[in-house]
Amino acid sequence: MYRTDVYFITKNLAEMPFTTFLPFVFTGISYYMIGLYQPAENFFICTAILILVANTAVSYGYLLSCLAKDINMALALAAPLLIPLMLFGGFFLNSGTVPNYFIWIKYISWFNYGNEALMINQWKDVEFINCTQSGHVVSDDECLNDGQEVLELLSYKTTNMGFDIGLLFVLIVAFRLVAFLLLLNKTKRKTVKVIDE
Q1: Cys staple from 123: which of 14, 18, 35, 147, with CB 3.0 to 4.6 Å?
Q2: Where are the transmembrane segments (predicted)?
């Protein structure tokens, strides 16, 4: 009924309020309950990063759904393609310990960019960490003194914040563009040959 480009653009626009509003609500409810860094600026930066991460994940979902021929194939592709992105995104492995032959996975993982940006937002301005646990002082070799030490331990650099945010935008556009091209290829009308008898 509609041209492919019109359908794809309107679907993206129709879902945009949800992919913006829901991360905002999620962050608004949980941010201060968790006890993250208090200033309002950091809250809004965290919210913006999570909105970008959510939109990147939705873009990846578009790509998978346009790649697969049906829902069963999309579900079968999702886990094997998503798990490596999560593994090398900084949650499970320190980003400085990723082997060189797997480093390329880290660079296409929105988990990596989102995690680094969120960690920088949380820790870059923390000047002192109170090193006590349940009333017991932790030894100096177990204690990190400030946010910079936390970021160094995780192999993150504060100068990468703009880079991470920029690459989240790039991944959103790239995933949606590839998804659109795949959908366009699927919906392309095939020419019918008329055979004269």
Answers
A1: 147
A2: 12-34, 40-63, 75-93, 165-184
